[in-house]
Every structure is written in structure tokens, then in C-alpha cells.
Amino acid sequence: MSDHFEGEYAPSPTDWVREAVEQFESSGGEVSLNEPGGAPIVVLTTVGAKTGKIRKSPIMRIEKDGKYLAVASNGGRRENPGWVANLRAHPTVELQDGPVRKTYVARRLDGEERRQWWEYAVALWPTYTEWQEKTDRQIPLFLLEE
């Protein structure tokens, strides 16, 4: 990990999140969500907005041209996932894709750029459409760039 991500790691209090991160990291990034034949995931490492602790979240693997998209769907719930506040407070993140870990800077998308990335995300993971329909909030999209 890069120096930016040194500090106390605070595992998620949500069982499936914590377990997915543990399985992903212990396998060297070879685990997908809902194995076997599950959707590919990556692990997003952020710095906690309130605590300053290291947080890790499994997110769907949406990559194009070396850039990754973090979709804050939260399964269509009314609130954003906790990592959204972390990205806003500390936009420098680490992403592990398979065995490779790199540092990225996150920025929220809007307008035409958001529309294009949303279409790409939905093409890879159509469930996002259902989750968007379940909530009144517009699901935030963050582009992770080196």
C-alpha cells in the first residue's frame, strides 16, 4: 500500500462487506461477488471522513481505458454508501484490481460524462437500473483516475 494509506484499518461493521474484502484480499484478488461465476469486483480503499481510519469496500469492477467507475448504488437504498463521504473528504484512494493496487483520484461525474459512464456501467451490470428505480436520489458516480 502507498504511504497515504498507512494508519488504523477499521473493517466494515457490515458482515457481507467485511467478508467480501477478506476473501478478495486473501485470494490475491481472485474472488468475485456471489461466487461461483459471480460479478467481478475490486476493492476500494478510502480514508474515513469522520474517523480518519482506513476503510475498504468491495465495488463492482467497471473499468475502461485504465479508469475505474465507483457507482454509489447502495443497492437502491435511500442513502449513499459510507464511502461516498470518504471520497468527498479525501478523494485520493487506492484500488485493488486482482493482485494490482494503484492510487487514484476520485471525482464526481455529472452531465454528459456521467450519462456516458452510467450507460457503460448499466451495460456491464444491468441491476443498476433496478436500484436507480428503487431510490429517489440520483446514484452518484465517481471516476477514479491516476
From TrEMBL:
<dbReference type="InterPro" id="IPR012349">
    <property type="entry name" value="Split_barrel_FMN-bd"/>
</dbReference>
<dbReference type="Pfam" id="PF04075">
    <property type="entry name" value="F420H2_quin_red"/>
</dbReference>
<comment type="similarity">
    <text>Belongs to the F420H(2)-dependent quinone reductase family.</text>
</comment>
<dbReference type="InterPro" id="IPR004378">
    <property type="entry name" value="F420H2_quin_Rdtase"/>
</dbReference>
<protein>
    <submittedName>
        <fullName>Nitroreductase family deazaflavin-dependent oxidoreductase</fullName>
    </submittedName>
</protein>
